[in-house]
Fold these 2 entries.
Entry 1:
Amino acid sequence: MGGPDREPDAKKGEMFHFAETAESIAATTSKLKKISFLASYLRDLNEEDLRAAAVFFTGRPFPLTDARTLNVGWSALVSAVQQISGASDETIHQIYLDRGDLGELAERLLGSPSRPARGSGEAGGERLSSASVQEKLADLVKLSGASNKMPLVLDLFRSLSPLEAKYVIKIITGDLRIGLKENTVEEAIAKAFDRSAEAIRRANMILGDIGEAAVLAKRGELDQITLRLFRPVKFMLATPAETEDEIFATFHGAFYVEDKYDGIRGQLHLDASRAALYSRTLDEVSHQFPEIFEAARNLTVPLIADGEIVAFKDNQVLPFGLLQKRLGRKKPSANLVAEIPVGFMIFDLLSFEGRKLIDEPLKYRKEMIEAIPWPEPLRVAPFLLLEERVQLDPLFEQAALRRNEGLMLKDASSLYLPGKRGMSWLKWKKALATLDVVVTGVEFGHGRRRDVLSDYTFAVEHDGKLLNIGKAYSGLTDVEIGEMTEFFKQHTVQDYGRFRLVEPGIVIEVAFNGIQKSDRHASGYALRFPRIVRIRLDKTVSDIDTLQTVEKIYQRHVGES
Ligand code: AMP
């Protein structure tokens, strides 16, 4: 590593250079400078460190397609920092409130004079590199339970300098917060190895592993990437559309209209001897959905298909609330499978008989999908090809009658762009309903919003009591949030630090896409995707919606379930 100009730093571990680079990136708002700092750092790394560091710079400990999770929680990290630094609960609380970031807390406490100097930057410390930190994190994955993991966490932190610890913690918690988006990391890799940003983006999309993409860029092997069976590919995503005019203005040629199912995304990989189903987070979920997995094995042709897993019975899609009973169970019981069977609505095909189809137009892929004899409960998601302008509203209504969430609209000539939320797929949803609710609790936000009260817990009314039903983060402008912050600070009933109970005076209108029973909130219900539509300064707490209204909406959309 390093040319002559790096010589004075050679005593420090590579992880220290990582942290220094991250600091420089955080300190500038110029995207060009961020790219330039990162590129010159990446250019000098060996393959192992490059593979790990590129991933770290996206704020993850492991590549996206890697199913490993650390399961090292906030309290374990705080406790490790506390054990090493000897800081009191009060000090921890104060610094955390002040900085709102666990990494910064660690840097400050581990750098305190009471702690002997250690770390890969200083004498006596093990010199850690990005690759060796990643190995240590991989060791943590293998242990289960916070108490088993703790000795390793302590060991890791003891061998890190305060600055390194700051970034390792940020990586463990999955949030670097240095103003670096994944596409900026891609541009930096491109600059480091003199490749086009587009080539890096494509490699990252297909591999779902930016570290591997960086290594291939360094080796000059970007054009050798193929889709591999049983290595899941990132999903193509859709951009929301609000109106019919917007939809017709976006597409210039023919486009497909499909129902937007309210289920979970799935990617099916198949060959003669094996079938596997992957979720949107690219984790394997085959055993959670045995009906799909087993039916798929009857098809012995190698392929990768994209679709939505839905609860499905008597030729009908069932509400998401029912599918939810199937989620999170490693293996459902036979009873549950019989009670709530699932199906797989297939809307795309990424490869077939070893041929990569993602670079073919959607029209071609649709023709291929239709020609395959999918065994039940695998089905082709019905689609309609629109070649001229028609009224979409009736199609929307029909989709809603089939209990689907809305419509998906897809450019017939578009390629499959893994991981991309572009304009060739649009989604059109209408809110299920809106509710007028009162804000009962407020919380400081994250990142840009860490100093303003931007997250609101809200309630409906029942028998003169306020019952919380949800929490919403988005929807208001910065100016509104600023005004609300001032207001809530003056109307705080109880201050718990980052969370405050407030006087119930502000009424907001919230939209949501679904509703389900839940014991998370006092009302006994939870809303799906709640968002603030507007502040209703024209309303007071006596005007808010009641639990009865909520029950009615629930009955209408979920029936007896
Ligand atoms: P959203 O989760 O609101 O961003 O909407 C995108 C999601 O809708 C996708 O990730 C799929 O899980 C889901 N979806 C449902 N039906 C379709 C469809 N016909 N085509 C593509 N995605 C669909």
Entry 2:
Amino acid sequence: MQRIYLDNNSTTRPAAEVVNAMLPWLRDHHANPSSPHPSGEASADAVRAARSQVAALIGSQASEISFTSGASESISTAFASALSTADESRTKVIVSSVEHSAVKYNAERAAETGWEVVTIGVDEEGRLDRGALLSELDESCALVSLILANNETGVLTDLEGLGAACRAAGASLHVDAVQAPGKVDLDVAALACDFLSLSGHKFHGPAGIGVLFVRSGHPFRPLILGGPQESERRAGTENVAGIVGLGCACQIAKQQAANPELLSTIEGLRNALEQRLLAALGNSRANGAGAPRVPGTSNVYLGGSEAAFVLAMIGQAGVDASAGSACNATSTAPSPVLMAMGRDEAEASGCLRFSLSAHTTRDEIERAAETVIAAVEALGAL
Ligand code: PLP
């Protein structure tokens, strides 16, 4: 039987259209977009078209888009740039307590090099303490970095007005929007951000390609040096096939985010899974369910079973899910995101994340729910 894949926040399957768009650039064309001959110009045209597709997804100008190897590079570049171009009087960096490790580790590196890093907490549903953030935001702040859609819980950060507040304080705002494409409308003007990061494989594009948006005119210093590519913002010969695939994925994500019926179908399946688990498993709860969330993410406390054991058992039975961020999957430490939401270690170690896609079916959800319930009951009986 086909495996049931409920781990789309870790990575998604590339869409058929994405693979088809990429194939000619892997098989038939190989010229360097910087080469001044017709084959090189064809590659440069393909990169240009993809840049416009990314810009259309986030409401930016094409010239504000740089391609990177993924979101981790994009986030690292935003941090390095914002901190190296900030005025010397600025000493502070603000992040939230539910950031992905890509932001968290960059904030830790900043702290090691003398920056004061202020971490703003969230409530038990994962909602940012906006008041605390606004009271920390002053003229000593160089950078604020916030996740838009949480990778573990799906909870959406309310960024309303924060971009304007950052601008008034003269601080750069970076938005980690990696989990947002295809799920919510993305608009850099409304977000009023200076940097925004995306990663192709999180929304049915290829892995190994990402995006850094830098607002036009915003001070910028590249992290990767070596050549004039990407308007001197990111050196290195372009991954043309990856860029073409990413552009195609942006087009699909834009259509999906503008399709309320599809989004409510995904949400309905997520809710059905949650309701079935919560009804069957005593003492269970859905983390972040009281806050606005993206439609396809569910994070469930299973009522006392160790998530790692349940994960192994359902994996054997054909269901792929996750016990938190894939980047922390090899760690046995409880999820820092759930701990930040006030869960204790035992509870944070007893949660599973299910992340759906537009391809998830009702039959898969029903079979996955029964598989999880059977695994928890079997563990309970031991
Ligand atoms: N930010 C968030 C919210 C993520 O979910 C991820 C990946 O899990 C990243 C950043 C890093 O993306 P990548 O591994 O593609 O560089």
